[in-house]
Design goal:
Layout lengths: L5 H6 L28 H34 L1
């Protein structure tokens, strides 16, 4: 489906007989005895990933400004 028919298909849905169900997937979560679902290992990996991304972006930006300074001073 390419998305152009979504409005047409959505218009055919009988909302009067719609019975929504809640689905919760626990597969990727780490529940501890204290009912806290925060996984410190996962959070640390995500933090490290974002730190690396930040460092690469700031180094790239610094390099761009360095090139601008070189062009301006020439």
């Amino acid at each position: 489906m390419d998305g152009s028919n979504v409005g047409i298909i959505a218009g055919k849905v009988d909302t009067e007989n719609l019975r929504p169900r809640i689905f919760t997937e626990y597969k990727g979560l780490s529940y501890r005895i204290d009912k806290n679902n925060v996984d410190p290992d996962t959070e640390n990996v995500e933090l490290a990933s974002e730190q690396i991304r930040y460092q690469v972006l700031t180094q790239s930006l610094s390099h761009e400004f360095s090139q601008f300074r070189t062009v301006i001073s020439s």
